[in-house]
Sequence to fold (427 residues):
Amino acid sequence: MPDIFINNLIYCDTIKINDLGVGNSLRPFLVDPSSRATEWLKTHLKEQRLEVVNQQDANFSTALELAVRFGKTLIIQEIDKVEPMLYPLLRGDLISQGPRYVVQIGEKMIDYNEDFRLFLTTRHPNPEIPPDAASIVSEINFTTTRAGLTGQLLAMTIQHEKPELEVRKTELLKQEEDLKIQLAKLEETLLETLAQAEGNILENKNLLDSLNKTKESSQTISNSLTESVDLQTSLDQERDAFLPLAENGSTLFFVISDLAKLNNMYRFSLGAFLRIFSRALQGKTDGSSTEMRIQRLIKCLQDLVYEYVCRSLFKADRLMFALHLAYGMHPGMFQENEWEAFIGQIVSDIKSDGQRQKDAMPNWIDEDRHQEVNIIKSNFVALYQSLSFTDGSLWSGFSRSSQCEIEFPTPLQKKVSAFQQVKKFCY
Fold:
């Protein structure tokens, strides 16, 4: 996954840059909401005459022309749409003029330098790429995923709580890669030696000595690889102690990301969330165990995120967010179809005439509430039976009270969950 791949900078730069589209005939188009891939590119390409420009900048055309002419590496950020002047470059419409090539940019013909490299990036998670542009760019999506964010938050947590573990794991991964490269080289050398051998192999003493040395080296490397894997497994077990915090944080981010479906202004960046997560890690606990600290950090993170988000919401949406947060973080507290019925996705399947429906209802239930009670009756049979609606004396105080939320029948409080009580108040 892209976000995990960028997070673990342990492989050689050539492999990583090729994964970002260099060497591909199509120009790379990076969908990078968190800007992490873009920042990585800026860091690892800074020695290659790198220039960064926004598509909205006044000097955009000039920067593009100079980059093409002098063979620079150009990163164009904030791509909302592919500008028409980019199409000749993206298509590779080069015109040969003697020993050189030129390309049309706008109304100008610009000398094309073969060292020129182009990266297009956008922070928009769902950019609209027209079909004619989609066919000439290589889209690479770095949108955050749950698993990727969990890995990133776990790395942040380990870096703060036990930095020596993160350093050791990185060293082990690098060591493991080096050993695999050495083993591959030994195998290649062995094949070359056998291919170049002359005469009877069994009588070639130099060849046999070389084979024995290669075998000993290969065995040593294989043993080292086994030890490295075992040690890495042990380190992973220590790291996994902090996994609940990372998983909780990842779930929390995607819960608040759903708010954009309600109002397009309710968008919260990954960068802002990571800063809140970092603040939560600063919380101090006095001599508590790892398990206790994790639980306190989880609570601290949820409190910080709730306060941060609520400051950004309209007052009318805060209660909705609180319920959405409760459902998103604790789905196990809700029985099947309860949430769907609460938000109106489930309606009553009972079809009967009005008088018959009215006669079947207890007298204390108002007529305008009959439809909602039928939803409970048809979709939550066990809950309907446990509520004992037919017992008017049990519900008399509740039906007359102007503060029904504090008048819920005491005998029923242990039979229903807290959310079922809330749902009853709403109905």
In short: Residues 205-239 form the longest helix (35 residues). The CA atoms of residues 127 and 291 lie 42 Å apart.
